[in-house]
Design goal:
The protein is of the alpha/beta class and 429 residues long. The chain has 13 helices and 19 strands. α9 packs across α13. The longest helix is centred in the last third of the chain and has 19 residues.
Amino acid sequence: MSDNSQKQSFLDNIFSYTTRVDDYWYSQEFKIAGIKIKHRMPPKEYMNSEIYTSENNKLYADLCNYTKRFKKITLFIDHSYGGGCDKYFWNQVRKLDKTEAIVRLQYIVYYDCYRITLNGACRSFSILDSSLENVFKQVNKFGIDRIVLSNIVGYPSIDKIFKALTDYKKSKSYSKILYCLHDYYPICANYILLKDGYLRCKGHCKRKEFNKCFECSIDSRLTTDDIKNRIPLARWREKWLEFFTNTVDEIICFSNSSKTILKDIYPSIQNKITVKPHEFIPFKNSIHIGIIGEMHYHKGRGIIDALIDYLERNNIWDISIYVIGNYYGNRSDSRLIKILGEYERKELPSILKQHQIDMIFIPSIWDETFCYTAQEAITTGMPVLCFGFGGQAEQVSQYAKGKILESQNPDDIYNAIKHLYKTSEEINV
């Protein structure tokens, strides 16, 4: 989407809220009954207003149109508590190529609403919706190829989720539905199976102990209707068994231990269980340099070419260059460089995290009159390097994590990168 189409999705600076994505904050604008307020999220009383609903419909339409450019789309249903599930999600995003996308659905407990984003980035069509039925009504238009039910701990009703997914499966039988066993929620609402908050529940596999349902400590955030109504554990498991049997295509366990626990409770579904340990992302063996924008001659493509030539000639492989934009130089063949292509400004935080960028290099060789790239780079909070002239140097020189390069010699640039990386690591220790 272009900047113009983004602006048309929102009405002029009448309502503003801020959404947190990883370690970054971005503002988005809504017109809610003509009231001008600043807040993290829209006030609860406006979540169902006619104006809010109207704006949401525009955002859904924008998102639907945007997803049409992808060949494969996954709906990723997740909670919003972070932890291992969040890492798992970002690992899935990290593996995406340009033909794939993930529409992420999360339940925001405090606001009793659902948040829909693309690839986890709260961009211009980040959507908040209080109706799960409407969410799936809209998602039906996206052409979802796969649904990953990662975690629904804290969702208000497992029945609504199960019904929505079952109906979706009936209408789109080609769509594969996977369930990820991040915890033991299908076995008990006390999803970590700890009695009184600290004792390992020894009865979790004993069917005779169903009458002891919900005697354990239950997290107060888990507002599921079934938990509040304290239904028998046998009924809880019946719902999950029916869902696993009739709707889910594959159940992913991350260890053989968890597979044993699950199949002991649900022996009839063990043929659907697959053990896939979490991928271990090894510690990086190189410094990841981010270069933002279109790399034409005046923007420093020759500097990048020369740096790559120098690194390869001297058998140096501890630097990786990520061009967040397009690169028109001569060394796109090198394994030291990866061209990520065009981006939208609000995607930048998730791109930086996805590729584990350590610092940003501005190789521009002309006297920039202002340099928006420098402003973007500084906003990330990362170390920033540039040459000592133009608007870029003016901004970076006043930045605590900024470094002005005195030479365009590749050897000097490499040494400056190493020194800045070492210095920033020592500060963070």
